[in-house]
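Look over this today:
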Amino acid sequence: MAADKLTLLLIIDHLSSGGAQQQLVLLARELTRFGHRVRFLVYREQAYHQSLLEQWKIPVEVVDKRDKFSLAVVNRVAEILSSSEPINGVLAYLTAPSLYAILGRLKARSQVPLVISERSGPNNPNRRFWQRASEFFWRFADRIVVNSHHMGRYLQNKHPRLADRIVTIWNGVDLDRFRPSPLPAAAEPWLLAAVGQIGTFKQPECIIRGLAHLRDEFRVMARVDWFARRYPELTPSEQQEFERLNRLIGELRLTDQWRWLPETKRIEHELPRYHALVHASVVEGLPNAVCEALACGRPVILSDTLDHPLLVDDNRNGFLFEKGSPAALAEAIHRLACLDNSSRDRLANQAAEFAHRHFAPSTFAQHYLDLFRNLLKKQQG
């Protein structure tokens, strides 16, 4: 079985710029590069990854989903699994696609190995009742993949009967795109990048207040460029938060030290301009932005929660700070600013080395291949 080429069905809601979507597209590319066959089943059209999918000749089927919960997706999954086309495994990312995959396989009465993946953090208060309730159906999946160890431990404690099915696979990073580059020369203002949607979980307020504390207590100036996902097309709640944060920026006299920038398909071209990435998030799985910054040789200033202490070894490839504390964040930035050039270069080199050790896309894909091959081997006997 180890040498066999697999055919896998990948199911997700859409193929946008979101973290889960980027990960599944990277996985599809890597599996194709290995000589395996993959196809996507989605139910919302998005052209974000179209050129890459066309380049690798990866087919994408869009199901016409007209209702919030649509049996059309369930039926299509069942049709594919009941057809004569050989499918060696199904992989679904995110809550709703995973539920569709489970129900589709049940309807088809198929024994094709099914792996689902939950990507959000366990402490996400936005996780709705139906999302939590969907965990009842996890018993019908062969494996549940999470992308962080803290999420894995949480789910194993919550679902002890499923503990042996819960597997942690860290994200991969496209190391062809995200390559180390020299740090900018030491200078004020220190240039810091931040990436993420505008919302309280990413803690932009902590970073804003941290900049003011850095200026007032340490007499150090820094500027943050926040690449905001879904900007400027914000949801009503994001728009409200955006306006509140802008008022705070004005009140703290930080107008010249903060810029909102639109998300970019080429963040790897932007990161070389910055001295570090700052990431204050308190709710998520494994942050793509952090992994990508490390791969570019950028030290990361990171909240000390979730899997973050596994990503950043303090004063080795970045700095950790107490979550939610602007004063601790300011102190971490100050520690970076006090380093001499050789020490900053050491942090940058070790950041890139860590990323290449842990986030290689070939390793990321191999974990999933091993998972499916073991499931197939178990089925056969």
